[in-house]
Amino acid sequence: MEGDDCGFHYGDGTNEAQDNDFPTVERSRLQEMLSLLGLEAYQGQRLSLQDSLQISFDSMKNWAPQVPKDLPWHFLRKLQALNAEARNTTMVLDMPADARPVEKESQMEEEMIYWDPAEDIAADDIYSFSELPTPDTPVNPLDLLCALLLSSDNFLQQEIILKMSLCQFALPLVLPDSENHYHTFLLWALRGVMRTWWSQTPRGLGSFREDSVVLSRVPTFAFVRMDVSSNSKSQLLNAILSPGRRQWDCFWHRDLSLGTNPREIADGLVEISWFFPSGKEDLDVFPEPVAFLNLRGDIGSHWLQFKLLTEISSAVFILTDNISKKEYKLLCSMKESTTKYYFILSPYRGKRNTNLRFLNRLTPVLKIDHSHVLVKVSSTDSEGFVKRLRAIVGSVARGPCRRVSVEDMAHAARKLGLRIDEDCEECQKAKDRMERITRKIRDVDAYRREELRLQGDLGRKAAQVEREFCQLQWAPEPPEKHRGELRRRLLELRMQQSAQEPSTGLQDFIVGISSPSAGERQYFLRWMEWGLARVGQPRLRQPPESLLALRPKLGGASDFSEPLWPEPLGVEHFLREMGQFYEAESCLVEAGRLPAGQRRFAHFPGLAAELLLAGLPLELVDGGTLSIPVRWVTGLLKELHTRLDRRSRLVVLSALGVPGTGKSTLLNTMFGLRFATGRSCSPRGAFMQLITVAEGFSQDLGCDHILAIDSGALISGALASAGDRFELEASLATLLMGLSNVTVVSLAETRDIPSAILHAFLRLEKTGHMPNCQFVYQSLHDVPAPSPKPRERRQLLDPPGDLSRAAAQMEKQSGGFRTLAGLAFCDPERQHVWHVPGLWHGAPPMAAVSLGYSEAIFELKRCLLENIRNGLSNQNKNIQQLIE
């Protein structure tokens, strides 16, 4: 192809040459691909994250794409469900039986063109192998990924890449766009990827470390192709990354389904993947994190990307069959580079001497010797060759090599003229505002005392008084004197709160979420999440293993003013502070101490409602006081009702269970939600997030939105003998289930049903309101357990005898405790009990989400939606009814 010489124009760091060095046929390929996939409409108004998460008819069926326009949505659905087969772009032609020629039934299997790179193809024939796909031919998965990313806004791009990382797919780093003559470095899109790995210190002591892949500086190794190579870069990389004999297809390669389909727009794509150690010697290929880069296409046609890789890599591996004069000149231009170069050759017969001649000339230029040249032919022992490559990578990583983070890579890309997705004005303004807040945080506890004052002693005491006042209302003959005393104490505490002024940090936060630009608000919240994750971790005054001692005791009362474990500082604490200002002001207005016209914080619930509509989880139960700020939540729901107008029919779906049973991950996988997961110090409160039902499906489903509630860490598994702590857990469990149309009870062991949930069922039975219940047993082990038989399912719902009798006695049940199945009005043999395999396939951090887990969660989701549609979830609510 033309453009082999264009690489020489890129060396000066400008991007101008890209405008004119692509032939006319290349300019139209992107638009043709977008049209084929039905993505042309999203070139002006990009596809958003909220668009992709709407519940529609397709959410209830495991459908296969039939035409190319189905492929982007099929990919997004599969990726949201963390399905390892998301990259399969095979289409199923849905033809009527009578229209299908009988003699051609055996030809319904896909026909593919397999191209052997070693074949000698004339230049005139090159386009015979790269005709654009038609509606009857498959699309290369890398083309689909590039087209979808080019049609998505920055937040959907970030979500796509986050889900890809959980599936252990290689992630796009540089996104090519030859149509518009610029390539994009995806820094923002990668920011959400967090990884945990085993970090070994020089003293031999080790611990697990969690950090963003964007900020971690690691040795980086690039694999590129020069002209033609019989060896596959992607297969070599997969073999290097995979421990033992089990190979994971992190990088898509030619031997996979559709892997031989020609790439139309994905050449020039740079992918990145990492190896992270687990601390297990038999699994750890390398003792420290290592990054690997893969350039799709030939370096001669993508010189700008190759130039970037040479500036950020510790070493570059060049795969080629033969070195010609043209390639020799290209490599001579890299003589100033300090990067190490290695060649992996698979020479044609008779070309050996030519290769040796050029390699001898390159020796002083690239500072290489015979150890930098590896030969791999069909007879080469593949396992031994991979071990040799690992040894080279390990040797370079142990020495004084270049270590870069993704942020460092972005700086180099910016100098070369690549576009950085993070450089837009809205994103940078939001980042600056976040940094004004986080730079003041030196000590989390001190910051909370000084900047978030209303959540301190005043807030905890006010919550305790309101709890007592509420309990007093249900007493047979509440003493009026005691009630008046509680009112006086509460008003006094609220007046003290109202005397405070919002701190500078809170004011900056309010300005950030008040921006008229929805995009800037979204950027600001994401920046705040990451910024607080780095500076907002509490200081543990005890070693991590002693954190278990902070859990509630089996007997005696608990002091709710003291947290059960250290809680990290998060966005919810700033919103909680806003809620306290609103609560205090509302209390004074109700008591006649403040005219309604003098309110300063009446607009706060509206700001929070906008965040809920934008997809942010908001606190329903305050994690600091383990109580519901009723005025704040009521104000928020009223604002939500106003904004949704006629689309305010709700189904409330709650997930209950003790921390560590996978309930948050379950909700996130089912609906693409953002509840906190997998943190040693996770938020303690219950959170809610709104899911939109597509307008075309809302009439059929019977609701316009689903409000998902995650019980978080509220239910710790305290026994009935734990006194006040248990009573509080049981009350909160009863409340959350009472609000719900559908409840998912997440269990880790067959008999691990928390006492608080048992008592919640007993209490709800008295009210006559029982949500549709699904019991999910999640295997917490890597080995998938067999699905329980009907008898075992029934045993799963039968709590131990002593516990059931005690629960019935405490709740004054005259007929005793029947079974949990009887209470929940469900038949264990009719899909009310689910067995979900383990989340991971393999050992983290290099494990991918198991296909069994993904498929089981999809079936659960389908069942939940079917129950909602069939009216089995009790009467759906509108927001006004939920408020009441």
From TrEMBL:
<dbReference type="InterPro" id="IPR030383">
    <property type="entry name" value="G_VLIG_dom"/>
</dbReference>
<keyword id="KW-0342">GTP-binding</keyword>
<dbReference type="GO" id="GO:0005737">
    <property type="term" value="C:cytoplasm"/>
</dbReference>
<dbReference type="GO" id="GO:0005525">
    <property type="term" value="F:GTP binding"/>
</dbReference>
<feature type="region of interest" description="Disordered">
    <location>
        <begin position="1"/>
        <end position="21"/>
    </location>
</feature>
<dbReference type="Pfam" id="PF25496">
    <property type="entry name" value="URGCP"/>
</dbReference>
<keyword id="KW-0131">Cell cycle</keyword>
<protein>
    <recommendedName>
        <fullName>Up-regulator of cell proliferation</fullName>
    </recommendedName>
</protein>
<comment type="similarity">
    <text>Belongs to the TRAFAC class dynamin-like GTPase superfamily. Very large inducible GTPase (VLIG) family.</text>
</comment>
<keyword id="KW-0539">Nucleus</keyword>
<keyword id="KW-0597">Phosphoprotein</keyword>
<dbReference type="GO" id="GO:0005634">
    <property type="term" value="C:nucleus"/>
</dbReference>
<keyword id="KW-0963">Cytoplasm</keyword>
<keyword id="KW-0547">Nucleotide-binding</keyword>
<dbReference type="InterPro" id="IPR057365">
    <property type="entry name" value="URGCP"/>
</dbReference>
<dbReference type="InterPro" id="IPR027417">
    <property type="entry name" value="P-loop_NTPase"/>
</dbReference>
<feature type="domain" description="VLIG-type G">
    <location>
        <begin position="647"/>
        <end position="884"/>
    </location>
</feature>
<dbReference type="Pfam" id="PF25683">
    <property type="entry name" value="URGCP_GTPase"/>
</dbReference>
